[in-house]
Design brief:
3 helices, about 90% helix, membrane, Phageshock_PspB, single chain, Envelope stress response membrane protein PspB, about 100 residues, transmembrane helix, transmembrane
Length: about 100
């Protein structure tokens, strides 16, 4: 009787445990609709904050001629390329949902 339990544990129990945790691992690695919505909301918030920061730097630069806004000219164009690509992907995804 002990041999049957050992063989069942090796050939049935062990693969079941391994496959169970593999399935859990694969489903945990995917984004849910809630995760995508949260990421999109955070992205929009980051864009608005970035625009506000640009506005604040412009206002400070207009009031203080010695202020040198480092974000406005040098980093802004480098940031726009990935953000434009992300905007394009969001627009495509929105078209597919409709």
């Amino acid at each position: 009787m002990d041999e049957v339990i050992i063989v069942a544990a090796i050939f049935i129990g062990l693969p079941w445990v391994i496959l169970h945790y593999l399935t859990k691992w694969k489903t945990a690695a995917t984004l849910t609709n809630d995760d995508e919505a949260l990421l999109e909301e955070l992205y929009q918030l980051a864009r608005r904050l970035n625009e506000r920061m640009d506005t604040v730097e412009r206002l400070v630069a207009s009031d203080n001629p010695e202020f040198k806004p480092s974000r406005l000219h040098s980093a802004r164009h480098e940031e726009d390329t990935p953000l434009s690509e992300f905007d394009r992907l969001l627009a495509e995804r929105g078209d597919k949902r409709k």
